[in-house]
């Protein structure tokens, strides 16, 4: 199996495992999605969804976020990590949307990454999910899984991982592959407890093979000491 065949095999396998993978951040429009992704940095989607359930009822527009003192917005998102910095970025972002974009969220990657608190990952999530533009956003799950499966090198930066995935994955599959890699990493190939024992990709996973061999060696050593 050459590398191109391996990539196709990986894509098809995770597609069978998670055919309905999609963005798990609750939102009803591009603006809400941007706020949700901004809040999700170093935080779980589950926690963000709990916060935005009330947040999105209270704040509907950029003007709403600017109509309250910063301290009030901080309290509204207090259960989320880095809430003070995120509250500041939300208000700065909303101010720019009003002044530069007539209160509307821009729909291009180049404009989105210029907004406070919006990096490459957030911009890619927004353009792909809200505007239908093919993109691969690299979060911790995508980075971890890509390196474990050999789609990227262990020392690659997040940007390098993104570029390699864009080269290897067909463009029309970028967005769904992003979601499936997240699901694969979130629910199967977890950071501390990957399910290598039942993984259908173990044959093409150097990390998994190494981990399984290490476990077998430990078991053999333990058994030898016990006897």
TrEMBL record:
Molecular functions per Gene Ontology: 4 iron, 4 sulfur cluster binding; class I DNA-(apurinic or apyrimidinic site) endonuclease activity; DNA binding; DNA N-glycosylase activity; metal ion binding
Note describing how the cofactor binds: Binds 1 [4Fe-4S] cluster.
Top-rank taxon: Bacteria
Entry keyword set: 4Fe-4S, DNA damage, DNA repair, DNA-binding, Endonuclease, Glycosidase, Hydrolase, Iron, Iron-sulfur, Lyase, Metal-binding, Nuclease
Required cofactor names: [4Fe-4S] cluster
Reactions the enzyme catalyzes: 2'-deoxyribonucleotide-(2'-deoxyribose 5'-phosphate)-2'-deoxyribonucleotide-DNA = a 3'-end 2'-deoxyribonucleotide-(2,3-dehydro-2,3-deoxyribose 5'-phosphate)-DNA + a 5'-end 5'-phospho-2'-deoxyribonucleoside-DNA + H(+)
Binding-site positions, [4Fe-4S] cluster: 189, 196, 199, 205
Record's keyword annotation contains ATP-binding: no
Residue ranges constituting the HhH-GPD domain according to the UniProt record: 39-187
EC number from the UniProt entry: 4.2.99.18
InterPro entries attached to this UniProt entry: DNA_glycosylase (IPR011257), Endonuclease-III-like_CS2 (IPR004036), Endonuclease3_FeS-loop_motif (IPR003651), HhH-GPD_domain (IPR003265), HhH_base_excis_C (IPR023170), HhH_motif (IPR000445), Nth (IPR005759)
Gene3D superfamilies referenced in this protein's UniProt entry, alphabetically: Helix-hairpin-Helix base-excision DNA repair enzymes (C-terminal), Hypothetical protein, domain 2
Annotated GO biological process: base-excision repair, AP site formation
Entry-linked SMART domains: ENDO3c, FES
Job of this protein: DNA repair enzyme that has both DNA N-glycosylase activity and AP-lyase activity. The DNA N-glycosylase activity releases various damaged pyrimidines from DNA by cleaving the N-glycosidic bond, leaving an AP (apurinic/apyrimidinic) site. The AP-lyase activity cleaves the phosphodiester bond 3' to the AP site by a beta-elimination, leaving a 3'-terminal unsaturated sugar and a product with a terminal 5'-phosphate.
Family: Belongs to the Nth/MutY family.
Record's protein name: Endonuclease III
Species this protein is from: Insulibacter thermoxylanivorax
Chain's gene name: nth
């Amino acid at each position: 199996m050459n590398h191109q065949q391996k990539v196709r095999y990986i894509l098809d396998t995770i597609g069978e495992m998670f055919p309905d993978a999609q963005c798990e951040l609750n939102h009803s429009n591009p603006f809400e999605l941007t706020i949700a992704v901004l809040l999700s940095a170093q935080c779980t989607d589950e926690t963000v969804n709990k916060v935005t359930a009330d947040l999105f009822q209270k704040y509907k527009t950029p003007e709403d976020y600017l109509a309250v003192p910063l301290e009030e917005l901080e309290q509204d998102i207090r259960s989320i990590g880095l809430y003070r910095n995120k509250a500041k970025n939300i208000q700065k972002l909303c101010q720019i949307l009003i002044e530069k974009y007539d209160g509307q969220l821009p729909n291009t990657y180049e404009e989105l990454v210029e907004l406070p608190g919006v990096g490459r990952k957030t911009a890619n999530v927004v353009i792909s999910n809200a505007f239908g533009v093919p993109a691969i956003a690299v979060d911790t799950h995508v980075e971890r899984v890509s390196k474990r499966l050999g789609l990227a090198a262990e020392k690659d930066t997040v940007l390098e991982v993104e570029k390699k995935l864009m080269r290897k994955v067909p463009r029309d599959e970028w967005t769904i592959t992003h979601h499936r890699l997240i699901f694969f990493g979130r629910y199967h190939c977890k950071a501390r407890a990957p399910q290598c024992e039942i993984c259908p990709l173990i044959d093409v996973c150097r990390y998994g093979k190494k981990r399984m061999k290490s476990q077998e060696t430990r078991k053999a050593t333990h058994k030898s000491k016990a006897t």
